[in-house]
Design a protein that fits this description.
The protein has about 325 residues and is mainly α. It has two domains: about 210 residues, Rossmann fold, CATH 3.40.50; about 80 residues, Tyrosyl-Transfer RNA Synthetase, CATH 1.10.240. It is built from 13 helices and five strands. The strands form two sheets. Strands 1-2-3 form a three-stranded parallel beta sheet. Strands 4-5 form a two-stranded parallel sheet. Strand 4, helix 8 and strand 5 form a beta-alpha-beta unit. Helix 3 crosses helix 13. Bound molecules: adenosine-5'-diphosphate (ADP) and tryptophan.
């Protein structure tokens, strides 16, 4: 099975990225699939327009992938722009992508509402994402719920291409775990770099604790019963607790007599403990930029070879090169 996924270098990694996507990357890597994981730096250009910032975020995301356990011996780990063929495929796919398909994508409207410039790159971003997936003949794409529509668009584009030029492109499937498909942020909305509501993967323990203590809860008095399913603290707590402990907390919420502060304290304890090894690994990579750069360059060469194989078929099927 060929597995592929990417993350934009547009901010700091958070536990939504980890539980929603990266933990699945690790599982699939350990199951021995052919995994391709990349840093989506062309994508990040829709929001990051300073060279130094793009460089800094790219390094951060690269260290982040390595720190959580992406293993360059097992997975092809690379930077999107080291395979420029992906832009060529984007153009080819653009020419068969109906406007209506892109107009229906909610991410464009969401991002414009968040303040991003409504430019052509942002609008056609799902076509670039389709190229990322299709160029490596990927079967499975681990992502969070917010990317599901882009996988549907990718499949629609691949079907249209195959109907037009012959059966060349592989149809991918999304890989989304329902229990972590949407990790809530500290304010109860989806956790996202753009909402300033994240628990970062590599921030200090004191930072993590402070943020958890500030999570907004309702004003139900301590003695009253509470609904765990409406509580952000519980939603985050259950990412870290065993099944048994989760049930225990559910019961404590429902029977009353428990204040949110108690649940926050336990969440802080577990989150800090869980994240500590990641933080330590991350610090190691901060001190070894050249190792990280070598890993990306080597990964880029392997990814490019795979992409070129598909592009030879695409160029010939479309008439760009002689058959
Ligand atoms: P952000 O919204 O913070 O910018 P990205 O768009 O870079 O995050 O997402 C990278 C990966 O992490 C994607 O697969 C995305 O679906 C997943 N992801 C991001 N935020 C969450 C979340 N809150 N819950 C579940 N998955 C998430
Ligand atoms: N669009 C994804 C995001 O914002 C990142 C991404 C780009 C991606 N290309 C991809 C994810 C290909 C999976 C497969 O999170």
């Amino acid at each position: 099975m060929r597995v592929l996924s990417g993350i934009q270098p547009s901010g700091k990694l958070h536990i939504g990225n980890f539980f929603g996507a990266m933990r699945q990357y690790l599982r699939l890597q350990e199951q021995g699939h052919q995994c391709f994981y990349f840093i989506a730096n062309y994508h990040a250009m829709t929001s990051v327009t300073t060279a130094d910032t793009l460089q800094d975020y790219t390094k951060e995301i690269a260290r982040g992938y390595l720190a959580v356990g992406i293993d360059p011996e097992k997975a092809v780990f690379f930077r999107q722009s080291d395979v420029p063929e992906v832009c060529e495929l984007t153009w080819i796919l653009s020419c068969i992508t109906p406007m209506g398909l892109l107009q229906r994508c909610v991410s464009y409207k969401d991002k414009v509402d968040q303040g991003l410039a409504p430019n052509h790159g942002l609008f056609c971003y799902p076509v670039l994402m389709a190229s990322d997936i299709l160029i490596y003949e990927s079967n499975l794409v681990p992502v969070g719920q917010d990317q599901k529509q882009h996988l549907e668009v990718t499949r629609d584009i691949a079907i249209k291409f195959n109907n037009t030029y012959g059966e060349i492109l592989t149809l991918p499937e999304p890989y989304i775990l329902p229990e972590t498909a949407v990790v809530p942020g500290l304010d109860g909305r989806k956790m996202s770099k753009s909402y300033d509501n994240t628990l970062e993967l590599f921030e200090s323990a004191s930072q993590t604790k402070k943020k958890i203590m500030r999570i907004v809860t309702d004003s139900t008095p301590v003695e009253d019963p509470k609904d765990p399913d409406k509580c952000t603290v519980f939603a985050l707590l259950k990412l870290f607790t065993s099944e048994e402990e989760t049930k225990d907390w559910q019961q404590r919420y429902r029977q009353g007599g428990m204040g949110y502060g108690e649940a926050k304290k336990r969440l802080a304890e577990l989150a800090v403990q869980y994240l500590e090894p990641f933080r330590q690994q991350y610090q190691k990579f901060v001190q070894d930029d050249s190792y990280v750069e070598d890993v990306l360059r080597e990964g880029g060469k392997k990814a490019r070879l795979a992409a070129q194989q598909l592009m030879d078929k695409v160029r010939s099927a479309t008439g760009l090169t002689p058959k």
